[in-house]
Amino acid sequence: MTNYDVIAEEYKQSKTLPWRTYVEKFTLMHIVGFIEGQSVVDLACGEGYYTRLLQQCGVAAVSGVDISEGMIELAVAEERSRPRGIEYRVKDISELGIKSEYDLAFAAWLLNYATDVHQLARMCKSIVRSLKPGGRFVTINTNPDDPISNFQMGKKHGFVKRAEIPIGNSAEIREGTPIIWTLSLPAGKEINITNYHLSRQTVTNTLLESGFREVNWHQPQIDPDAIQSDGKDHWQPFIDTPPFAFLECFI
Ligand SMILES: C[S@@+](CC[C@H](N)C(=O)[O-])C[C@H]1O[C@@H](n2cnc3c(N)ncnc32)[C@H](O)[C@@H]1O
Prior knowledge:
The chain has 251 residues and is of the alpha/beta class. The protein has one domain: Vaccinia Virus protein VP39 (Rossmann fold), CATH 3.40.50. It is built from 8 helices and 10 strands. The chain has helices at 8-14, 18-32, 49-55, 69-81, 117-130, 200-210, 224-230, 232-240, and strands at 39-43, 61-66, 87-90, 102-108, 131-142, 159-163, 178-184, 190-196, 214-218, 244-250. The strands form 2 sheets. It has a 7-stranded mixed beta sheet, sandwiched between helices. Strands 6-7-8 form a 3-stranded antiparallel beta sheet, covered by helices on one side. α5 (117-130) crosses α6 and α7 (224-230) packs across α8 (232-240). It is globular, with a radius of gyration of 17 Å. Bound molecules: S-adenosylmethionine (SAM). Residues 4, 15, 44-46, 49-50, 66-68, 71, 92-94, 108-110, 113 line the site of S-adenosylmethionine.
């Protein structure tokens, strides 16, 4: 499992890559939509990038939760230097222990840290328990349908993916196969992050079995400003062969 304590600063820098802003953030915030007055939690909040954005949407309250002390330290440092009324805590999402508190549970990159279906189910059940009746879960994940042949697609955007398939096995991605993302940072450094493959069907079924009544997968969208400045061809591969996928689930 990726230890974010040791890459917290570098991970924070990776949020400045253009695809983060014009595809990841643009799509997530579009799906989040109007949340004024809502009670919101940012799960696997990291250093609070989205927690702060969600706070700016006029929510009644927002808090952040992450398993990494290093990431939460950065989030708390930012909160101290510019207080926004956000509370952060260190906790494994599988053990949130919160009941019916939130209108929206948000998570930018969480479910793909589950190494198997059992761990995934623990996360999903914990998220369902934390939501009020009618609550919603919005998230981004590695796209389980992205073929290995497309894993270099993001090279010119500063990321590539690699499947860690044991030697001797057929070159196939299976449930639990580690998918390693290498992110190139603006300063010329690189970080590796390990996700785990679970199929679209496994993720959908586990969310439904955990208590969500509706699970919708969404395609990436590109910020029109980015298309205007860089041209359609620069961004089109994110639509044609998406390396990541978005989910919106209702209880
Ligand atoms: C790719 S980072 C995303 C951080 C933040 N959401 C963002 O987009 O900037 C993934 C985060 O998930 C956290 N994480 C992984 N497994 C977790 C778990 N079981 N419970 C809570 N946080 C977890 C890691 O510590 C890390 O901060």
